[in-house]
Amino acid sequence: MKKTLSAFLTVLFLATFTASGQKENLVSVNQLVVVANHPGPVISKDIYGHFSEHLGSCIYGGIWVGADSKIPNTYGIRNDVLFALREIKVPNLRWPGGCFADTYHWKDGIGPQEKRASIVNTNWGGVTEDNSFGTHEFMKLTELLGCDAYINGNVGSGSPREMAEWVEYLTSDSESPMTKLRKENGREQPWIVKYFAIGNENWGCGGNMTDEFYANTMRQFSTYLGNYAGNQLYRVACGPSDFNFGWTETLMKDGGTRDRFQGLSIHYYSIVDGWGYKGSATKFDEREWFETMRMNLQMDKIIKGHSAIMDRYDPQKTKGLVVDEWGNWFNVEPGTNPGFLYQQNTMRDAITAAIHLNIFNQHADRVKVANLAQIVNVLQSVILTKDDKMVLTPTYHVFRMFRVHQEARLLNIDLRCEDYTNGEKRIPSVSASASVDNEGKVHISIANLNPGKAVVVTCPLIGETYKKAKGEVLTAPEMNSFNGFDKPETVKPAAFSGFLLKDGLLTVTMPSKSVVVLELTK
Prior knowledge:
Blueprint: H1 2-23, E1 30-35, E2 49-51, E3 73-74, E4 77-78, H2 79-87, E5 92-95, E6 119-120, E7 128-129, H3 135-145, E8 148-153, H4 160-171, H5 177-184, E9 195-198, H6 211-223, E10 234-237, H7 245-253, H8 255-258, E11 263-270, H9 286-313, E12 320-328, H10 347-362, E13 367-373, E14 383-386, E15 389-392, H11 394-402, E16 409-410, E17 412-416, E18 419-422, E19 425-428, E20 430-436, E21 442-448, E22 455-462, E23 468-474, E24 494-496, E25 499-502, E26 505-510, E27 514-521
Parallel strand pairs: 1-22, 2-5, 2-13, 5-8, 8-9, 9-10, 10-11, 11-12, 12-13
Antiparallel strand pairs: 1-17, 3-4, 6-7, 14-15, 16-20, 18-19, 20-21, 21-27, 22-26, 23-24, 23-27, 25-26
Helix pairs in contact: 4-5, 7-9, 9-10, 10-11
């Protein structure tokens, strides 16, 4: 009945406001109806999470420079990066991988740094890893950021005992060999660890397992992951890549397996022309732009497909979908190590971030955690560093603008928009989501996917009356505009005035290739 009423109201108000708009010459083929008086599920702040792997210069040089560095730092962590990440309210940080996680043995990264074992990072570049950034350094980083720790355990080359002892070392306050070892290494009190993953990509770099084999292995490992000192682990089972629905079916169909985890991960990267040649991050044409947008929008189908399976076995939605790797993946920048995955970040990436975050918001009932890959200097990062210099990417600015949705309640929307076409292919030209926070402020985030055309979006507001509005816009001169170390502010947000709020109708004129976030108050 509620859905029927909502649909009826949507049609009614679309007709009403279209007629009103025609009188005032504000009509648009793009209509975004926002139902403001029936808020839905809370948008978990943790879908705005990030991912830090021992890969290239993500950790070393990007986050960690060491306490003796001339670069200003706090306990060895770069101050400029730390302050920038605080600004976007990073809610959780995943570490140490990625593929690196299933070759990582945590005891190599504790104790006096000069005595830590050096290893070869076989996954990423074959470089020497000195383990100077380990458990204590990572947990200090999360404390300084005020975010939750998301630790990825080693299933591929580790053992249940190794993983169990790591959890005990981290979170137990009882007297035991592991807590004694932690105290000897300088940490008296246990930490709080919210998220703990039982392996990473175990269908690939994490062991090339079948779904059935992994399900049994996960059950074994999970059995020994204890909850100590009131710490409650949110155990994340390794889920599939993109459209592999069979893996999800295997993990969900058996109650004994399903009871061993609270979240199920999925990974999806937007890759234009396949893994062989991924295209340039900065030198691309409109076909490549369009294909990136089209691949981005696949995330909605992926989530719906896995959610449908989960709904059959978990109709109460007690299990969360954890999209803990997502983003654009292009060729590395010329002259850089192919194993370091360093790529620039343009306006195309900003639109990508907006599309994904809008999709995650819309699936707030099932998607509980998501992590952009990766946080600094790797793939679609929010920050780039070079020696003592730092650049905020266009993706960073989208995360800062969208932070208003964290822990707000999702508002139902109905979006009808014109197509953006390229050749015979077509996709929606607009992406959007809306929420209401605890203070009653409504936030609407909209992205115009078309790089060559401004669009007008008429937005009827149902159920509540709003008198004031303000907003921000992120756009750029070119679709491949980016922030370089010589020009760090080519792409940055600006105050937005391209809207009209009158008699319950919000009309927004969006520049081409832009992201707009609006705040409405009574």
